[in-house]
Structure formats: structure tokens, C-alpha cells
Amino acid sequence: MIPVTRDIALDESEIEERFIRASGPGGQNVNKVATAVQLRFDVRRSASLSATVRDRLIALAGNRIAGGGVLVITAQRFRTQSRNRADALARLIALVWKAAQPVKTRRPTRPTAAARRRRLTDKRQRAELKRRRRIDSTFRNND
Fold it and tell me: Which of 8, 53, 111, 139 could hold 4 in an S-S bridge, CB 3.0 to 4.6 Å?
């Protein structure tokens, strides 16, 4: 079991790892050794997650969710398989942890009375300035 929060722990059997060749520069090492890790976690069928965490995780993952609700994380930042593996697992844990955090409900607020007065005063001053410009421009055009 991989601990995420006090209440959530992921079962290792739900996580599938596949080692692939990394893209990008790296010379012969890239061409010969499969150092990149593709971690797959079936979010829809996971018994470790509650329904709300599952839905939030799918929403957070975005385009990393493949068909059928499988989360795919590819790690190829490092040159070694073990570090990429740890990186992919850390990214999965961080994503699940973020999904487990409760969503803050937005409480609608109202502007204060002083803020309303300031807004209306500024509005009047701006309107007055524009009105004066309009009058000034008509005098200049008549000259």
C-alpha cells in the first residue's frame, strides 16, 4: 500500500508500469536503454478511491486520462529507470492528494458602502471630465 493521505492508500496492484525509450537528446543511451517510465492507474476501477475523489481526479488529470478512465503518467526527466519510476509515482501521489483535498465553496461577497460611494464618485468625476472635453472640442472646431 502506498500512503497518500491518512484516509487514502493506493494498492500497488492497481498501478502498472511500462518501461519505454525516452525521447529527446541523450546519445546512444536513449537509443539503447528503456529508461522512461509510463505509469498507468485505472481510476474508474480503483477500490482505493472514493467516488468524489475519483471524479475530482479525472477532472484534474485532464488529457492524461486515456480511454476507459486510465490515468497515464510518463516520466523521462532523469537518465535512470529508478529515478524516473520514483518521479512518476511521486506525480501520481501528488495528483491523488490534490484530488483528495476538499473543494472550497465560494461565498458571495458584497462591496462595502464606502467602496460603492468611491465607485460612484469616480464615475461622476470621469463623466464630468469627458463632458468638459466634448464642450472644449466643439469650441475649438468653431474657431
Answer: 8
Continuous H helices in the chain: 28-32, 51-61, 81-100, 113-142
**What DSSP designation does 7 have?**
S
Beta pairing class for 2-3 and 9-10: antiparallel
Alpha carbon separation from 55 to 38, 43, 58, 62, 119 (Å, rounded): 22, 9, 5, 11, 42
Between CA 54 and CA 134 the distance in angstroms is 60
Are the C-beta atoms of residues 72 and 36 closer than 8 Å to each other? no
More confident residue, 7 or 111: 111
pLDDT at 3 over 70: no
Query: Which pLDDT tens digit goes with each residue over 35-81?
Result: 788 888 877 777 777 777 778 877 877 777 777 778 788 887 777 77
Helices marked H in 17-71: 28-32, 51-61
Query: How many angstroms separate the most distant Cα atoms in the chain?
Result: 88
**Cell 460611494 maps to which residue?**
117
Beta bridge partners of 42: 70
Joined grid coordinates for residue 114? 464606502
